[in-house]
Amino acid sequence: MQICRYDSDRLGVVQNDHVYDVTEVREEVMQAVPWHGLGDPVIARLPQLIARIRDVLAQRSPIPLAAVKLRSPVRSPTKLVAAPTNYRTHIAEMQAVTRGMPVQRSNDIGTAGMFLKANSSMVGPSEGVGLRFLDRRNDHEVELALVIGKVCNQVSMERALDYVAGYCIGLDITLRGPEDRSFRKSIDSYSVLGPWLVTADEIPDPDNLQLKLAVNNELRQNANTRDMVYSVRRLIEFSSTFYTLHPGDVLFTGTPEGVSPIKPGDTLSAEIEKVGRMVVAVRGS
Asked: pLDDT tens-digit profile of 67-121?
């Protein structure tokens, strides 16, 4: 199932270029099964929500997808966790880009670890990217993003996918420079999540998905998640060794080679197999 947030926090199901409004179902489920934990309450109650949606979806009228403004499918994560060096070809290209800069880079994700992006940097595709520091290089990075569905702490690789609610396209926009990575990647609108959440049952193997990004219709990134150094399962195991992951927490799994600068006026088209496609406008902030 493809679940989206749109317009003024409406909840919808996406089918065949149409959205079916299920906001009332969300309110019904949340009242019946209150959530008192940390994280996103809608994601925490996703199984109950999906079951109820299936009962009523045929009664809903379709809205053209082009007529709505897509927001981030997750509203309130406790954290955005990201992999900095998870494709070897990207590690090599970034070594070339940062040569001569006062930046220390690690070739090994196990050594570099994960990093956090501020929740306030997260937007949906309709909100676009507002670039800052236009005298410096700002880059696009397309990534498979996974959304945690239930409390996840010190989980093994074998059980890791049991904790995934679904998958999205993620854009990890990056300001280049000497500051800490988390600081440069946490600028407002520098974490784009969308276009919707594809529930985990529709993607049994997240480690074999083609992902692409074009800038102004020019293809810049084109790779497959099977090329990741740490698989999705390993990333969940690795992250949950350090953090308790809560419903709605987002893991950006890393970007492949092809990263390049963007500027105001550009249009980013990002696509991941079995997830979907989203178009994101770039502007000055």
From this structure: 999 999 999 999 999 999 899 775 666 666 655 656 566 568 999 999 999 999 9
The class of domain 80-284 in CATH terms is alpha beta
- pLDDT per residue over 223-252, tens digit each? 999 999 999 999 999 999 999 999 999 999
**Residue range(s) occupied by CATH 3.90.850.10 in the chain:** 80-284
SS3 string, the chain, reads CEEEEECCCEEEEEECCEEEECHHHHHHHHHHCCCCCCCCHHHHCHHHHHHHHHHHHHHCCEEEHHHCCEECCCCCCCCEEECCCCEHHHHHHHHHHCCCCCCCCCCCHHHHCCEEECHHHEECHHHCEEECCCCCCEECCEEEEEEECCCECCCCHHHHHHHEEEEEEEEECEECCCCCHHHHCCCCCCEEEEEEEEEHHHCCCCCCCEEEEEECCEEEEEEEHHHECCCHHHHHHHHHHHCCECCCCEEECCCCCCCCECCCCCEEEEEECCCEEEEEEEEEC
What is this structure's pTM?
0.94
